[in-house]
């Protein structure tokens, strides 16, 4: 696998892991500790607010992925023969 393809796959795997774990973590963390624990919001409303936090986290991750994809250096690199 080429060096460029390896870097692309690493970035894709990184953002995939973020998309799987970070929204779930942010949902439960914000529900239990921020909204119910710190602000004292009732449980029925804390589900709604935690879902909003999770959606915002997903959008931030997508925005970061798009930024990284557009700023990626895609200039062709010369292939040197290795003996």
Name its key features.
83 residues, 2 helices, 78% helix, mainly alpha, 0% strand, single chain, rod-shaped
Chain-wise SSE layout:
Elements lengths: L2 H36 L4 H29 L12
Commentary on this structure:
It contains 2 helices and no strands. The chain has 83 residues and is mainly α. Helix 1 (3-38) runs antiparallel to helix 2. This is Vacuolar ATPase assembly integral membrane protein VMA21 homolog. It comes from Batillaria attramentaria. It is a multi-pass membrane protein.
Q: What's the number of extended β-strand segments?
A: 0
The biggest beta sheet, please? none
What is the helix/strand order? Answer: HH
The value of Rg in angstroms is 19 Å
Number of helices: 2
In whole angstroms, how far apart are the ends?
Answer: 18 Å
Q: Spans with pLDDT under 50 lasting ≥5 residues?
A: none
Mean pLDDT: 91
| Beta-strand content bin | under 5%
In short:
It holds the Pfam family VMA21. With 83 residues, this protein is an all-alpha fold.
């Amino acid at each position: 696998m080429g060096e460029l393809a390896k870097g692309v796959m690493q970035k894709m795997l990184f953002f995939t892991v973020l998309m799987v774990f970070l929204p779930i973590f942010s949902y439960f963390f914000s529900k239990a500790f921020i909204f119910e624990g710190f602000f004292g919001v009732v449980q029925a409303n804390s589900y709604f607010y935690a879902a909003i936090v999770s959606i915002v986290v997903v959008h931030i991750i997508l925005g970061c992925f798009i930024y990284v994809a557009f700023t990626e250096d895609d200039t062709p690199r010369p292939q040197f023969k290795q003996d």
